[in-house]
Amino acid sequence: IFLLVRDTPQSEGLPTIEHHREDFPKTFEYGENHEKELSARAIFFEHVLNNKLLWTIAIANAFVYFVRYGVLDWAPTYLNEVKQFSFEQSGWAYAFYEFAGIPGTLLCGWLSDKWFNGRRAPVSVGYLLLTLGCVVVDWKNPPGNPNLDIAMLIGIGSFIYGPIMLIG
């Protein structure tokens, strides 16, 4: 791949794809400055490091992974030691968490496409707020309410994987 794959047609002395196919974007005024080649350093310093939206997404993504890996690594132990679940109960609760991610992710994508016209941020923010709610309820719920604990774990599983797929 390193030897055979090239960056852009222009890097090989060819015309841009838009010129080759005479297929120019209609959403904005197309110009030659859109095809300007930038070095990796220029891209990093001009478009990545100074991009506040990108930093916001990166920080949000870090917190999403804190929750995800926290549940992945600690849910069975937490359920067993703090919530007094049996080994079998914590195994089932953890399995429900994992399986809940499938419909939750599909629903997240569907909502962002159908209700928000492909905008991923509103759905991701909503899902993250629902995840926060489930984490707080599970944390504050005293031992002895296993159905609520399992429901919150299912909620966390449903709501945490959607933003990972959309923004991760």
Shape: elongated
SSE pattern, N- to C-terminal: HHHHHH
User: What's the count of strands?
Assistant: 0
The major β-sheet equals: none
Measured on Cα atoms, how large is the radius of gyration?
Answer: 23 Å
Mean pLDDT: 85
Going by helix content, strand content and strand pairing, the class is mainly alpha
Provide a count of the helices: 6
C-alpha termini separation: 25 Å
> Percentage of helical residues?
55-70%
Question: How would you explain this protein's 3D organization?
Answer:
Helices cover 68% and strands 0% of the residues. By secondary structure, the chain is mainly alpha-helical. Helix 3 packs antiparallel against helix 6 and helix 5 runs antiparallel to helix 6. It is elongated. The two termini are 25 Å apart.
Descriptive keywords:
168 residues, mainly alpha, 6 helices
